[in-house]
Amino acid sequence: MFSISGIKISGLAASVPSQIQSNRHYPFSSEKEKELFIKTTGIETRRIAPQGLTASDLCFHAAEKLLAETVPRNEIGILLFVTQTPDWIIPPTGIRLQHRLGLPKSCIALDINLGCSGYVYGLSVVSSLLKTSGGKKGILLVGDVSSSVVSEKDKSTAPIFSDAGSATLVEVCDNEQNIHFSLHNDGEGYDAIIIPDGGMKNKISPESIKSEKISEGIERNKTHLIMNGVDVFNFSLREVAPDAKMLMEYCGKKTDDIDYFVFHQANLLMNESIRKKLSIEAEKVPYSLKNFGNTSSASIPLTMATQLGEKLKNEKLSLLLSGFGVGLSWGTAILETDKINCLPLIEV
Amino acid sequence: MQLNDFIAKFENEIQDIVPGSIQPETEFKNLDSWNSMQALIFIAMVDAEYGVTLSAENLHECSTVSELFELIKTKVSQL
Prior knowledge:
Oligomer: heterodimer
Mean pLDDT of chain B: 91
Helix content of chain B: 55-70%
Distance between the termini of chain B: 14 Å
Low-confidence stretches of chain B: none
Number of strands of chain B: 0
Strand content of chain B: under 5%
Largest sheet of chain B: none
Shape of chain B: globular
Number of strands of chain A: 18
Low-confidence stretches of chain A: none
């Protein structure tokens, strides 16, 4: 656990594709399965990027609007793009975004490959780099188009994942308020969420794209995302609440001191289990699952922008952010925001 | 930890189960409504009620409701 002082979030924008898919019309589950799925996961509709609209495009649109309303582009010293769905394997997409956004060549630009914990990790990296690089402002771009890596015929993933991007403006400030972080990983669970083929370990071959029926309602190939639901569920039950508790103890806060707990939007069953373990009132735990599903790395900023937008704009808030998932990786952050420039949701 | 109480909790979590229809010897994976989503719902209930976690392997190894109960009881005793 560690703390970084003199850093604040000053702006936030989230974006989603305009195309909506309803889980009530998901064709590869029975009516009963759909009913149970929606009740259990809390996911009714998802946003799906059309062919050609990437995570970098979604983040670009969010960043364009945010920068237009906040700071001159030549003041941005760091761009961090957190995604698992980059435009290419080579080159890093973040560097392309630096150019597309008209940021100076002196702006440090890099990618991080992380999913559901990515926003918390990204915030820690941008904050740390700002403290050490002499830069004053950084932009954290976090997003995924998970719909492009799941098999639409896989009922264990397709009705869960949804697409979104985000842009967060992070800057150096005079006050000594700390952002507190707790970051963890467990590579033993590397295959709990995995796309087996397409990297250097298992290069794409004709075998990779051969569709295979795994069980009723689950058909996919080796370039599709596979999720071991029970392993991921148990990992989250085991790690997330204790990590949040530990970080609260570390910085001397109790649940009453935190205004909102913004968790990665995994699914309602999991998130409610975590909420109950922490004995947090329901009102303090916002959800964007119903309309936006599990948006991977973007779920925390998307939930902040869509569910807490007015409060973030007009009030001083104490927040606990918690991301957990692929890796396995999990992270918690505790921070204060003070009337940040939070834009309305952008539809692309 | 009582078997009757466990069975009532099990029935409460599984879709379309008539209360009183589950017996200790019921093979839960053969229930029409048992599926991967029900498995997660059940795991969440066990975690919340008994404070123990069941793995996919645990579920695989158990056939009947009473075997589930015994496994959970053993795990609780080891806490």
